[in-house]
Structures are given as structure tokens and as C-alpha cells.
Design goal:
CATH architecture of chain B: Up-down Bundle
Order of helices and strands of chain B: HHHHHHHHHH
Oligomer: heterotrimer
Helix content of chain C: 40-55%
CATH topology of the largest domain in chain C: Rossmann fold
Strand content of chain C: 5-15%
Number of strands of chain C: 9
CATH architecture of the largest domain in chain C: 3-Layer(aba) Sandwich
CATH class of the largest domain in chain C: Alpha Beta
Strand content of chain B: under 5%
Order of helices and strands of chain C: HHHHEHHEHEEEEHEHHEHEHHHHHH
Largest sheet of chain B: none
Largest interface: A-B, 63 and 61 residues
Distance between the termini of chain B: 55 Å
Number of strands of chain B: 0
Number of domains of chain C: 2
Strand order of the largest sheet of chain C: 2-1-3-7-9
CATH topology of chain B: Fumarate Reductase Cytochrome B subunit
CATH class of chain B: Mainly Alpha
Helix content of chain B: over 70%
Shape of chain B: globular
CATH superfamily of the largest domain in chain C: NADH:ubiquinone oxidoreductase-like, 20kDa subunit
Distance between the termini of chain C: 93 Å
Largest sheet of chain C: 5 strands, parallel
Number of helices of chain C: 17
Radius of gyration of chain B: 20 Å
Radius of gyration of chain C: 29 Å
Structural class of chain B: mainly alpha
């Protein structure tokens, strides 16, 4: 079994639905989507116009699902999808797009271009035109369980450190716990403080939680490469574990596409409604705050701003929760120009950071974020996605900007009030 | 064929042909789209699809500030000519007579001098739109034959209508016949081009709003 | 036919010159000059031409005129003889030798036809042929005179004519007989005769002075006046009713009468909505008017029916505005929509089948299927 053009074309055929047909019928070539995409605004390359990235899908829609297109195909007049087209489009569809969703917000005729690009990836990948980096990440995800190759022992090692540092237990494989936490490999390897933060917050809030040793990876490489079959397999592992542990809510951690994968795509990928809820960690924290189970003391010094991770805010619907949480610990919060659902992408999501070939352009488009930061000059930037954090840190370093990147969960945890249960060192 | 015969043909069989192709084309295309359907969404909803979809059908008409700043010419020129097209077609007394004859009801017209002024504004906007399309880097890259053809077919009724009203160049029946024929040409080509957006944009906007609204985001 | 030739052919003159004829009628030279002054101004000729015209007309020999009436209603003749204020139009008929006219001639039957044939022979090549009514080309038997079909009579008469004046919309463009479904196959003079100069003087009926103006031009200059692309004298048909209509300011402002007796109608607003064809009709009604300048249809509150234009009977109806279709578009749209819906559903089903098929042949993509 291997990739083939026929499989790719068939995948594109499968992807056309009423919304896709409505979108392609409506595009008037106004080019406004380009001005919403940082991969265009920071490079000036018109090929990177979002709607242009969907050309392979458009050709299939036209020649397979429209009367005139079908007639054109019969007469040999239709534009074909061939390997050359897919090869030429690879860097547009993968390297120059994070599926951030800004284009979908501005298109005057209402096209959800992001969705169309996601669907285009199905055809690209099945035809063998996905980037090497993403293929590798998918392979590792399926065979090892993590795109970064993080195995259980590595997780257990981090868990031990957290337990030592906090004096709290990190419950593993607890049947009947209310929450089952997922973690991205990024967090496990680079930001294990997140685990400690969760432990302390949940301990304080008296929330029962657990991590499954059989399915702890939140990152879904299948979503990034755009292959639903692989994404479904990865989601199924989480579903199996959640059902086995009979948890009420699965928590998606501070990772963007992980949230989209499990919260919004998940049930549709596996073809069944979940028997449990899925929430982003920020939603859970905000919920605890509302119930009075999360209290903080003290305020952050300095001016804070919040970088909205695309898949959590604009594409995920978790926009107000982080701001309510920040309000608990800051009285000097400033929004960037274009904040909330219109915030600009960091430039690394959707598989771009896993694609070494895209390193150069990824750093180039950081300029857009730099402009946002320059406009308000914050003392620290808060976010809720470790991929954004890593990449923003890279960018800030590249431009010699000394602004710390903070995790919102960790920041909240640092302001937890003292009580008799805390075994803080 | 005398010019009056041409005019009578345009007002009669010509319009019948154009109507058939236009109506058939639009209906077929819309049904083609709708019948593809969408898979039901099995994720737990955070908001209502229908109301979000309906909202976006309207709200997408207003661009957000940052986008407007970056695309101000495209957006402004676009609004001017759309508004102008609306006024010159729907608010001119002789046109409303035509509409009332076809759909059974009409509405009050705007004073003719106002419509006349808007025709000029619209023609100028369309010229500006073409210049933009040919000079803006992104638009130039995206532009194909269909874009130019539809631009021309949209401009032709405006120009021929203006000169028919002001009686410039040819004798009156010829001018009026040219105007009506240019509209018929537009109607015939309409369903095969991006002009379908006049109908499908409501579908697209609804889907957009519905998809985002399901996730609790107002798009 | 030149002026000289007219003047030199003394043998063919029956009753002397026009001047002598008018004199005999008791028309003083002063009245004579006044009449031709007004005629000249209507023909847009400069005042300096007046003496020239006068002299020419005084000296003009009375040419033979043969008036053939085919499928007509006699309205054109009625119009010309309606001149109740000025007897000068009658005088012009005395200034020509009207050798054949069904309504006005004294003779009837064989004698009338004999007079026609004699006039044609005696004035061969020089008589003016005036025609009103259309010619049934579909079946010539539909209209005959003395057993001769209109078609044959026209062709015969045209052979010896110096020029043809087609009077009334029937002879110029086919008129009411030609209206849908044109059961007689009616055609205009111009569709039969191709080798003679033809002046079209359309109108249903034409305005009297338009006719006499054309004749006066011919009598003065021996030539036909400048014609537009439809063969009509530019002086009278060069401007549309719309461009000379006194209600035009209301059109330009957008003030229309909606019914025949509403406030707008009473205020004299534009009659566009009531079906006025003024914008596409070329004639002198709005300036010269009718009944010696009394009024014209629009002034009387009725929309112009476009009677001096070809095909005016088939313009969708006198009360359908120019911007309205002439046929039932609603029915077409509804039936088309219904048929298209069925076609759309069929196509939609094909689309769904195609998608199902592609879903069926989908083989699960594994990590081993990501490279070729």
C-alpha cells in the first residue's frame, strides 16, 4: 500500500460537500483573504493567497460536481489535478498555512477557506505530497504514541519530578476520576511545570483527576498532516482510555490543534458521539473559578497581554475564559491591536513547526506578531498553547526582544492562595 | 430587421430566452450545491448553528477594522458599485414597472435624477474596480477570463442604460434595444460565472456562521 | 426629374401653373407667400429661400399624381382632407393633378381605371405615385381593384413613376394588416419596389402638413427631401416625440401618472407608465401637433402609441410601458424553475452517487500510505 495520485483525487472527491460547493461558487477573486493571512502580509507573495491554496480541491469540485464542469471534463476542457499541481502546491498548503482561520473570518462572501485548505490536505497527503516532517511525526504518533517520540517512561519520569517538587500525587489510571488530562509532547518535554500547575490547582479545588498511561498524548498529527484516518486512530486511543477509566471530562491541555482534534473533530472522526465531555484546560479553570473552587491571591506585576492561540480562540470558541482568568491575577492587562477572535496566528501551528523545510518562512512571518507586540510593549505575554510559546520564544529571540512568554495555567497556579492542604516547598 | 423590430424582439423572445437560461442555471446550481449535504456534526455543540448562520449572513457585510484598513480600496469600491447597481436597477421607475410585471409587486421609486447620478457613480466605481483588479498584486494573480468577462457584462447595462436614457449616439429604439440586449446577455452568462455569488453567498455565509457558531464563535 | 423638365413639358400640363391655379382660386399673392413662408420654415429652409420657393412654385407645372389605395382604412386620406382651418391644403391638391384617388375622384368603375391607365401612359416617367395601405404578398387575392391584385398594380404603376410617396404606416411599414399574425402576408411598398426613390411618410395617420411639406419640397426643388435610415423626411421625423414633448421635464424628474385619472394625470405628468411610446417614436406630433396645432395625444392625456414606427402594433400593447416585456415572463420563469428543479435534483442525485462511490472505494490511509 502506498500513496498514489488516484487515491489523492478520490480523497478530494470525498471532501466536497454542500459547504465546499457553496464556497467555491461564491468566490469573486477579491483577494481580501490575502490581507488576513500573515503568510501573505509578511512575504508579499500572491501565491500564498488563501483561496489560491485550495486550487486542487476547486478543480475536483468543478469537474466532478458541477454540470458545466462535468461537460467540460467530457470535452477534455477541464483543468486537471496531477502530480505536478500537487507538488507545486505542497509548500502553499503546508508550509504557508497554519489553518489559523483568519481568512475564513474576513471573506466577504463567507467562505470558510480554512476548512477548504484542511480538506485539500486530505488529497495532498493521500497522493504522497505531504511534507517529510509531518509524515515522520504521523509515523511516530501512530507507532510510538507521540509525534516527538515521547514514550511512557519519559512521562513517568516527569511525573516523578512533579510529585517531588510539589509534594502532591499525580494520579495515574484512576477509574472514576472526574477529569482525564491529556498532555502534548511539547509540554511533557519542555514545560513539565504545566503538570505541576494542574496538580496544585486540582488539589486546591478538590477535583478528582487522572492521566491515562495508555493514552496521554494530546497532539494529533493526523489533523496536522490532514489525514482523517490517522487522526481517527489517534482519537480512538483517547476515547478507549476515557471509556475504560469512566471519566466525565477529558481535558485538552495547552496545545492548539489538540483541542480542535479532540473537542470538535473527535466524534466526527471516530463516527460516534462521545460519552464524556471534552473541555480545554482554560474552560475547566474558568468553570472552577465560577464555582468558587479556584481562588488566587496577589497580582502580577507588569503589563500583560494575551496571545490567542488560533485553534483555541478563533477556531475553538475559548475566547473569554482566558481573559476572565487573567483578570484574577492582573490589573494591568492590555489587549493587542487585533485581539480575541481576530488575533494573528503565531505562525507555527497546523504542522508548520513540525516541518523543517518551513523554518525560514515561519520565522519570517513572526514579524506580524512582532508588530503587534511593538504596538503595546507588554512586559510579558500570556498564552495557552505550548507550540505558540516555543515559536514565539524563537521569534522574540531572533529579534532580540526580551519579553517572557507565560503559560496561563502556570500563572494561575503561581497565585493559588495558601491553605492547609498545600505542601508547597 | 428594423430597429423597432429588434426592440420588440428584445422585449419579447429575447427576454424569454434569457429568462429560461438564467432561471434554469441558477436553480440547477443551487440545488447541485444543497444536495451534496453535510455530514451531521457529532461533537457537543457550544452554540446554535441556525441562528449563528443567519447572523453571519448579515454581519459578514461589515468588514472588521483591521481588514478594512488593509483592503480599503477594494472594499470601498466594491460597496460603491454594489450599492450603485442596486439603486440603478431596483429604484428606477421604469425598471420597477418591469419587476412588477414579472413578480407581481413593486415599490416606490427614487427620483430619476438621483438614479441618474448613481449610474454615473456606479460606472466610475466599476472602472476603479477594474483598475484595482489589474494593479493589485493579489487580484492580478487571481484574475482570470471569467473575472474580466463578468466585469464587462456588469458594466454594459449601466453604460447602455445611461446612453439610452440620455439618448446619445444612435436613434432611440436602437439605444433601448442595446440596453435590453446587454441585460439579456448578462442574464444568459450569469449562471456560468462567479456572478452566482449573488445567490450562493447567502449559503456560504450561512455555512460559515453555522460552522463557527457550533463552536461558540461569532464569525 | 428636374425642375426644368417640369417647366418644359408644356404639352403635359392640363391647367397651367400652380400660380395660375391659385390665382384662379382667389388666393392673393400675399396669402400665397404667407403659406409658403410657413411651409419653408417647417422644412427648415432659410428665409432667403422664400422668393426662390415662391417663384418655383408659381411656375411649377402641376404634376400628375396617381394615388393607389391598397389594404388601408382611408384614414390617411381623411387626415389630409381634415384641414378645416386652412383651405391651402386643399389648394395644394388643386396644384397637383390628382388623376386617380378612390375616395376623392368623381369617376368610378371602368372609367376610373381608364383614367388611371391614361394618366400613367401620358405622364410616363414623370408622375408621382402616392400609395396608402399595405400590399398582401401572402396571397395577392386578398386585396384587388378591378380584378387586379395590389401587388401587380403597384409594380405596374411604379415602373412609370418618378418617385413614390408611401403615406401612412401601412404602406411605409406594413401597419395594422402586418400586425401579428399577419394573415394576409401584408408588406410595405419598400419591400416590393426596390428601384425607385421612395419617401416614407408614416403615421397612423400622418399629420396633414407633413404630407404637404413633402409635396412642396418636391414641387420646389424637384427632389425628395433628406431622408433618415427608415426613409422618412428628416425635417418631420428627425426628432422623437420624447425629445419635443412638453411633459418631458416630468419624465426627467420621475413624476408619472399611474392611471388615467389620478392626481398625476390631472397634473399633466409623464405618461410613460401608461405605455407611452414617445421615447422610441419619431414624428412631429409634439411640435406641429394635430388639427392645425390644436393638440396631440399626449396633450390630450393619452400615451403616444408610436404609430409612425414599424411594428408599433406588436410592441406588447399600447398600455404596456417600454420597460415592460411584451410577453409573459412570469409564466416562463415559473415553468423553467419547476423543470430546472427536477433537473437539479437529478444532477444532485448524480453528485451524491459519485460521492458515495468515492467513499466506497476509499481505502484507509495508514502511515505507510503517505509516500509514493
Amino acid at each position: 500500500m502506498s500513496a498514489s495520485l488516484d487515491k489523492g483525487i478520490n480523497a478530494l472527491k470525498q471532501q466536497v460537500d454542500a459547504s465546499v460547493a457553496a464556497f467555491f461558487s461564491s468566490c469573486v477573486h477579491c483577494g481580501i483573504c490575502a490581507e488576513a493571512c500573515l503568510f501573505y502580509t509578511e512575504t508579499g507573495d500572491p501565491e500564498r493567497t488563501p483561496i489560491n491554496k485550495t486550487e486542487p480541491l476547486r478543480r475536483i469540485w468543478k469537474s466532478e460536481y458541477t454540470l458545466m464542469g462535468r461537460l467540460g471534463k467530457l470535452l477534455g476542457l477541464s483543468k486537471k489535478v496531477d502530480d505536478k499541481l500537487l507538488a507545486d502546491w505542497e509548500t502553499l498548503v503546508y508550509d504557508s498555512c497554519t489553518m489559523c482561520g483568519r481568512c475564513s473570518m474576513v471573506c466577504p462572501v463567507g467562505n470558510d477557506i480554512t476548512l477548504m485548505i484542511r480538506k485539500t490536505r486530505e488529497g495532498m497527503a493521500a497522493a504522497g505530497h505531504a511534507p517529510e516532517g509531518l509524515i515522520g511525526a504521523s509515523k511516530r504518533s501512530v507507532t510510538i504514541g507521540s509525534p516527538m517520540g515521547v514514550k511512557l517512561p519519559a512521562l513517568l519520569a516527569q511525573v516523578r519530578h512533579v510529585e517531588e517538587d510539589s509534594g502532591l500525587k499525580v494520579p495515574l489510571d484512576v477509574v472514576g476520576a472526574e477529569y482525564m488530562l491529556l498532555l502534548s509532547s511539547m509540554e511533557i518535554m519542555n514545560f513539565p511545570e504545566f503538570i505541576e500547575a494542574i496538580a496544585r490547582i486540582f488539589d486546591k479545588a478538590n477535583a478528582s483527576w487522572t492521566i491515562s498511561t495508555e493514552a496521554f498524548e494530546a497532539t494529533n498529527s493526523g489533523i496536522q498532516i490532514g489525514v482523517s484516518d490517522i487522526a481517527a486512530e489517534l482519537v480512538q486511543r483517547i476515547v478507549d482510555a476515557a471509556e475504560k477509566l469512566k471519566v466525565k471530562t477529558v481535558i485538552s491541555p495547552e496545545c492548539g490543534h489538540a483541542y480542535m482534534a479532540i473537542r470538535w473533530d473527535g466524534p466526527n472522526l471516530v463516527g460516534k458521539k462521545f460519552g464524556f465531555k471534552v473541555r480545554h484546560v482554560l474552560e475547566v479553570l474558568d468553570d472552577l473559578r465560577q464555582q468558587g473552587r479556584l481562588t488566587t491571591t496577589g497580582m502580577e506585576k507588569g503589563k500583560l497581554t494575551y496571545h490567542d492561540p488560533c485553534q483555541i480562540s478563533r477556531r475553538g470558541g475559548v475566547i473569554d475564559e482566558p481573559r476572565r482568568l487573567i483578570d484574577m491575577v492582573s490589573d494591568n492587562f492590555v489587549e493587542m491591536p487585533d485581539h480575541g477572535k481576530m488575533n494573528w496566528c503565531c505562525g507555527a501551528g497546523g504542522g508548520v513547526s513540525a516541518n523543517e523545510r518551513a523554518d525560514e518562512i515561519r520565522l519570517k512571518v513572526f514579524q506580524r506578531k512582532k508588530d503587534q507586540f511593538d504596538a503595546i510593549r507588554p512586559d510579558a505575554i500570556v498564552s495557552a498553547c505550548s507550540n505558540c510559546r516555543i515559536h514565539l520564544e524563537d521569534g522574540l529571540e531572533e529579534y532580540n526582544m526580551d519579553i517572557p512568554l507565560l503559560s496561563l495555567t502556570e500563572m494561575i497556579a503561581e497565585h493559588l492562595g495558601d491553605d492547609d492542604r498545600a505542601g508547597a516547598a | 430587421m428594423t430597429e423597432i423590430e429588434l426592440l420588440n424582439w428584445a422585449r419579447g423572445p429575447g427576454l424569454q430566452i434569457a429568462t429560461i437560461i438564467f432561471v434554469a442555471g441558477v436553480v440547477i446550481r443551487i440545488i447541485e450545491i444543497l444536495m451534496l449535504g453535510r455530514k451531521p456534526n457529532l461533537a457537543e455543540a457550544k452554540g446554535s448553528e441556525m441562528s449563528a448562520g443567519l447572523k453571519t449572513m448579515v454581519s459578514r457585510t461589515v468588514p472588521d477594522r483591521a481588514t478594512f484598513k488593509r483592503s480599503s480600496f477594494t472594499i470601498t469600491a466594491g460597496y460603491f458599485f454594489h450599492l450603485g447597481l442596486f439603486i440603478t436597477f431596483f429604484m428606477f421607475a421604469p425598471h420597477i414597472l418591469l419587476i412588477r410585471d414579472v413578480i407581481g409587486f413593486g415599490w416606490p421609486a427614487l427620483p430619476t435624477p438621483v438614479v441618474d447620478a448613481f449610474a454615473v457613480i456606479t460606472i466610475i466605481s466599476l472602472l476603479a474596480v477594474l483598475v484595482n483588479r489589474l494593479t493589485n498584486k493579489v487580484m492580478r494573480y487571481l484574475t482570470n477570463f471569467g473575472d474580466l468577462l463578468t466585469w464587462f457584462l456588469t458594466l454594459a447595462p449601466l453604460v447602455t442604460g445611461y446612453i439610452a436614457f440620455h439618448r446619445i449616439g444612435f436613434t432611440a429604439p436602437t439605444l433601448l434595444a442595446m440596453h435590453i440586449l446587454s441585460v439579456e446577455l448578462l442574464l444568459i452568462v450569469f449562471p456560468f460565472t462567479k456572478l452566482m455569488h449573488a445567490f450562493t453567498l447567502f449559503l456560504a455565509r450561512w455555512y460559515n456562521g453555522a460552522i463557527s457558531g457550533y463552536r461558540g464563535v461569532a464569525s | 426629374m428636374t425642375k426644368d423638365k417640369i417647366m418644359q413639358d408644356e404639352g403635359k400640363i392640363r391647367q397651367g401653373t400652380l400660380g395660375e391655379a391659385l390665382n384662379r382660386q382667389g388666393v392673393s399673392r400675399r396669402s400665397f407667400m404667407k403659406y409658403f413662408a410657413s411651409t419653408a420654415s417647417m422644412l427648415a429652409l432659410p428665409p432667403a429661400m422664400l422668393p426662390v420657393i415662391a417663384r418655383a412654385l408659381e411656375q411649377a407645372r402641376r404634376p400628375s399624381v396617381i394615388w393607389l389605395s391598397f389594404q388601408e382604412c382611408t384614414g390617411c386620406t381623411e387626415s389630409f382632407t381634415r384641414a378645416h382651418t386652412s383651405t391651402l391644403e386643399n389648394l395644394i391638391f388643386d396644384a397637383i393633378s390628382l388623376d386617380y384617388h378612390h375616395t376623392l375622384q368623381a369617376a368610378a368603375g371602368h372609367a376610373a381605371e381608364a383614367a388611371r391607365v391614361a394618366a400613367m401612359e401620358e405622364n410616363y416617367g414623370e408622375y408621382l405615385l402616392v400609395v396608402d395601405g399595405s400590399i398582401p404578398a401572402g396571397n395577392p387575392g386578398y386585396s384587388t381593384i378591378a380584378g387586379i391584385s395590389n401587388l401587380d398594380m403597384l409594380k405596374e404603376a411604379a415602373k412609370g413613376a418618378a418617385a413614390i410617396i408611401a403615406v401612412g404606416t401601412c404602406s411605409t411599414y406594413g401597419g395594422i394588416p402586418q400586425a401579428d399574425p399577419n394573415p394576409t402576408g401584408a408588406v410595405s411598398v419598400g419591400e416590393i419596389i426596390k428601384d425607385k426613390p421612395i419617401v416614407n411618410v408614416p403615421g397612423c395617420p400622418p399629420i396633414p402638413v407633413v404630407m404637404t411639406g413633402v409635396l412642396a419640397h418636391f414641387l420646389t426643388f424637384g427632389t425628395l427631401p433628406e431622408l433618415d435610415h427608415l426613409g422618412r423626411p428628416k425635417t418631420f421625423y428627425g426628432k422623437s416625440i420624447h425629445d419635443r414633448c412638453y411633459r418631458r421635464p416630468f419624465y426627467d424628474k420621475g413624476l408619472f401618472a399611474e392611471t388615467f385619472d389620478d392626481e398625476g394625470a390631472k397634473k399633466g405628468w409623464c405618461l410613460f407608465k401608461l405605455g407611452c411610446k414617445g421615447p422610441t417614436t419619431y414624428n412631429a406630433c409634439a411640435t406641429v401637433k394635430w388639427n392645425d396645432g390644436t393638440s396631440f395625444p399626449i396633450e390630450a392625456g393619452h400615451p403616444c402609441i408610436g404609430c409612425s414606427e414599424p411594428d408599433f402594433w406588436d410592441g406588447g400593447g399600447f398600455y404596456r410601458a417600454l420597460s415592460m416585456p411584451t410577453e409573459n415572463i412570469t409564466k416562463t420563469a415559473v415553468y423553467t424553475a419547476a423543470g430546472a428543479a427536477a433537473a437539479g435534483v437529478a444532477l444532485g442525485a448524480m453528485n451524491r452517487a459519485k460521492k458515495s462511490a468515492s467513499n466506497k472505494i476509499h481505502i484507509k490511509v495508514t502511515i505507510d500510505d503517505l509516500e509514493k
